[in-house]
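Vinculin structure dump, as promised
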Amino acid sequence: MPVFHTKTIESILEPVAQQISHLVIMHEEGEVDGKAIPDLTTPVAAVQAAVSNLVRVGKETVQTTDDQIMKRDMPPAFIKVENACTKLVQAAGILSGTSDLLLTFDEAEVRKIIRVCKGILEYLTVAEVVETIPDLITYTKNLGPGMTKMAKMIDERQQELTHQEHRVMLINSMNTVKELLPILISGIKIFVTTKTSGSHGVEEAVKNRNFTFEKMSAEINEIIRVLQLTSWDEDAWANKDTEAMKRALGLIESKMGQAKNWLRDPNAPPGDAGEQAVRQILDEAGKVDMRARGQGASPMAMQKAQQVSHGLDDLVAKVENAARKLEAMTNAKQAIAKLIDSAQGWLADPNGGPEGEKTINALLAEAAKIAQRCEDPKDRDDILRSIQEIAAMTAKLSDLRRQGKGDTPEARALLNRLRLPSRTSNDHGVGQAAIRGLVAEGRRLANALPGPFRQELVGKCEQVEQLMAQLAELAARGEGDSPQARAVAQQLQEALKDLKGKMQEAMTQEVSDIFSDTTTPIKLLAVAATAPVDAPNRDEVFEERAANLRTTPTDSEPQRRKRPLSGRPTRAQWRESRPPSNPPETSRHKWFLPLVFC
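structure tokens r here:
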């Protein structure tokens, strides 16, 4: 576990700690281990106590001795020792003082990031008042730079952290926010389109938008919480109930301003963001409403409390069981990580002794612990089967080495099967097949997009194919682990990430288009088809609405989005397809209604 929680503090304090360590305990330890001692309080206090005791004993000795030279030389020596001890105590404060200085600076940097995050949280609430397409465009333009700035600052911060757990938490939360952003924009667009067209489903669109908004807000609040952590223990042993109460308090405080403004304004419209803020605050406060009103002992309150208690007991039992499994699997994984280097070293040595076999067996025992805790029977069986195969090959390899055959072709074949895969190992084309499948899906999706978007997505697919071909060529030449191959692999990872993002955007747009209003053009065409014969511009209106229907997708055909119908129906064609009966002229198109709405 790292001593300092950021790399900047570590890079400054580590040399200082080393110098102080050499100066203070050079005579005690010399250069045996050379480790830096971050906290010098204890050794310095011990030195100071020893010096004080030495001076006290020396002064008592001087007073009782008859040696005049000793009486003359000892007082200056006392002064030198006491001065040196004072300087030593002062030097011990260098590390703690420098650490306090750097921590203060680091806290200021964290507050900068938190201010940006809170600004994003405040602007996210504006989504609740966006009701037109121009408002949505303005909202997106204003939100984009802020999200980019926050993502950049979070990325720089996670690279600076030395605690891997905190880095992973920040990366995961930021990735979730990035994934939810296009979903939020799409949800707002669906709400605006539905409300503008007067179609059904406005309430569902509002719920969908608010759900995404609340999820993004929760992730950003989690980012703010993790940014303020300085040690893993602080997070691991945090009181979860207290953290939940703090999150509830934070939500109430964030909504309080909107709620008060809405309550102060007598002309505020019902149902806007202010009223929603009031309702959210009441929902949080309602959790303790009964006890706050002194009804905690009422039969209804006690019944509900008992139900909640039973539910919490079940939940706690499930969580504890899952936590025990997770802890056991984590411990096994850490044990494997400690043993893997030793096992690989034994495999690389043709003359390795029997201790290597014991290491591999211990590694396999830890892997078996993980297998026993797998929920999926297939995964468990696969791991156990692999363990048995590796154990058999290890025993055979160890037996060959005991016979002095550790460098034979048979031993080398076993060794190649036992070694962990590297960049130069052959995965039998599985990776390339997966990438080709992703590219094929991207091309299929591009065919359903309009021109500029199609070209952009196709360009991403071609870039991935080119980089994959370069990497495959380098691997075929035996240069799969060269610097050039690593650079190409990094570029391929970035290209795949971009392709995935573009495909997600395209799918979001496709879903938005599918759930847009598609019934109005059909209804208008039905009205035109049943219009009276003497209606003005009857044929022109019919032709215009039929043309509009050609470019509108129906609910039953979402996969053919914006694909024109085969041919444009004319009034003569409608007449020819009528039933043989000859209805009156005034109702000659009424037969069309069942056809339209079937």
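The two ends are 68 Å apart (CA to CA).
lmk if u need the other ones
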